[in-house]
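Following up on my earlier thread - several people asked me to post the actual chain instead of describing it. Fair enough. Here it is, all 491 residues.
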Amino acid sequence: MTGQRGTAVPERAGVVAGAVAETVAGVGAGAVGDAVGSVRDQAVTGLLALSGRALPLLREWVGAEPDCGVARALLTLATADHLDDATLKRELETAYRDARAVGEQQASVVYAVYLHTHRQYRLTADHLVVHFARWPADQLAGLMVGAFSSSGDPAYRAHGDALVQEQSALAGPDNWPWTSWLASTRAEQGRVREAYELAGHALSLCPRSGVAAHALAHAEHELGSGPASVDFLDRWLAADPQAVQVRHLNWHAALQSIAGGDFPDARRRADAALARTDVGMRSATNWRLLLAGQTPAGHSDPGQVRELLAAPGGMAEVFHTFNLALALAVEAATEDLYTLARRAAADERPDYREVLAPVVRALAEVTAGRPRAAVELLTGLGRQAERIGGVRVEREIIQDTLARALVDAGEHERAAGLLRHRTTTRRHHAYEDLLLAARPRPAGTACPTPGMPGSSRTTAPPSPDEPTGQRPAGRGRLRGMTYGIESHPAR
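Reply from S.P.:
Thanks for posting it. Predicted structure:
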């Protein structure tokens, strides 16, 4: 097959890890020795919780059991974005060989890792359907349920949502990993109250569940929790400063600060917590600040963005390309945006041609001071904007841009109607209020502060060290290799 490519947890979390001991080792915990069994259980729990301790524990586990295929595969899953092709090939071939010697369930988990690390998301989803039919509620396989939404196919996404609900029911309400994954599913479905309750329940079972904390952040974004959400995220991250999602959760906190009108805090987080490679989160923060008429934080070098777009695979993923377009918009790189829009319009992939192209063109029109042209481009998209990828909170910025363009085009009532569901349901909505506020336009233009040359800029600080396990920007290239595991029996 050719492919693409912490802190202590409560006792109940340890019970969950023990429940997958048979899958992980193929034998009872006592048979591998108490010390190795303890490392294994801690590594599994840490990975499920997205703990900062997961990676060193996985490495310790592989060192203690070098012939455990599942251990090697999980370490590869956690580090795949930082491995070259030859290393990835070698590690997964070894893991699959060792897993097959233990049993079919172990081999099936490794095969899922192989497909997922090669960004073969539809094939990963197809394989998981077969896997869960044989081994219901397998938590290690659950680590890859995001493949359904990553496939970009609405039918796959809907099937994945149903599968998560089914597997969560089979696992039971006290299984914190599956409850956490269900909370994430409900948040993305817009079932905010359910997501909020499920995330809270999962955190009561395992306070260090990173998936649950992330799902809660999404739910609280929809609820406009503002400072309360920021306080929770800060406390949660303080207990595990190396958590896998430390930068992303800081980004969520920045959005909540924007919602509550604390723009200095949003800028501080963008500068202090986000790395230079976090082009998407930095540009999404800065574009929101500009749309609200605020000074942006330090941001990306347009030369870096051009390099990312020109690199092999620079336009391999539609959402990644959209994030680079936002970075260009923050820099008021109008001509670059027009060029990118033309490239997307000529692309044979429908999502690029039909959705990305008009969105990028609209960003160019905003930066060029032509809000009415942006309105015409964005109004026609409607629900099709979902095809640009990402999740609800990430796609919301398209609606923000349309609302601001409507105001600048003199259509305040339409803009207010567009955001009414947010201004009437979110506890804190200072951001939405500013999107709807009329502002003086710079002399000689028809465009507000966003994207205008000469607007206040700050210099991006040196990049903080990047925690291992985060995908760097621009790593959307295809991996074109054939492994010796393509005939896995579950296929």
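The longest helix spans residues 85-102. That should answer part of your original question.
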